[in-house]
């Protein structure tokens, strides 16, 4: 009878080992395959922010070039010591140093306010026709870039990603793989 008992334990331990193996395989599959899918989805979301052409960062690059051109005219006409010139210069440095979506958004708000103030001051200053056209064109281009960014689907993509990673097992996979939701651009 002891033989049967020993054989029964071997059968149970093989079954237990098989169940553990299956559980490990399932967990591995979830983490690796599910993690790869989440990583790809997150990469798609972040590409709308800092990818190539058409991303928020790319549009802000053009926006900042316009602000710099306005700053150059203002420096020439008003001088580096003018308070509004200094404010636009500081805003320009801030936006170029922004490293997160929320920091870029805040810096964009600051640079837009500084440009509006400085363009008004330049118009009151009495620019020549060439400078007037240049400043108006640069400001118009900045406004266009702002509208493009405002219409970006980046924030909607972040919300969709958050919805995906809020459920189980995606929330566990995201936590274990460090795939939290990106910041909103606001």
In short:
The chain has 186 residues and is mostly helical. 83% of the residues lie in helices and 0% in strands. Helix 2 runs antiparallel to helix 3 and helix 4 runs antiparallel to helix 5.
Taking the sheet with the most strands, its summary is:
none
Q: Structural class of the secondary structure composition?
A: mainly alpha
Calculate Rg over CA atoms: 28 Å
Which shape, going by the Cα principal axes?
rod-shaped
Q: Approximately how much beta-strand content do the residues carry? A: under 5%
Distance between the termini: 74 Å
Helix tally equals 7
Helix percentage range? over 70%
Strand tally, please? 0
Succession of helices and strands: HHHHHHH
Poorly predicted runs: none
Averaged pLDDT: 87
Outline the structure in words.
The structure is a single chain. About 85% of the residues lie in helices and about 0% in strands. The mean pLDDT is about 85. The protein has helices at about 1-50, 55-80, 85-95, 100-125, 130-150, 155-165, 170-175. It is mainly alpha-helical and about 190 residues long. Helix 1 (about 1-50) packs across helix 7. The radius of gyration is 28 Å and the shape is rod-shaped. It is built from seven helices and no strands.
């Amino acid at each position: 009878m002891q033989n049967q008992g020993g054989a029964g334990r071997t059968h149970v331990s093989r079954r237990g080992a098989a169940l553990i193996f299956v559980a490990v395989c399932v967990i591995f599959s979830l983490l690796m395959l599910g993690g790869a899918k989440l990583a790809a989805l997150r990469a798609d979301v972040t590409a709308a922010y800092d990818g190539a052409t058409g991303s928020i960062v790319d549009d802000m690059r053009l926006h900042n070039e316009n602000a710099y051109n306005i700053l150059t005219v203002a420096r020439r006409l008003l001088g580096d010591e003018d308070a509004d010139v200094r404010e636009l210069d500081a805003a320009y440095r801030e936006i170029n140093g922004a490293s997160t979506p929320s920091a870029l958004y805040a810096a964009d708000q600051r640079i837009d306010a500084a440009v509006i103030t400085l363009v008004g001051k330049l118009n009151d200053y009495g620019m020549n026709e060439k400078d007037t056209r240049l400043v108006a064109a640069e400001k118009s281009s900045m406004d266009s870039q702002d509208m493009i960014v405002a219409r970006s689907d980046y924030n909607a993509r972040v919300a969709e990603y958050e919805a995906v990673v809020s459920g189980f097992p995606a929330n566990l996979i995201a936590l274990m793989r460090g795939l939290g939701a990106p910041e909103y651009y606001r």
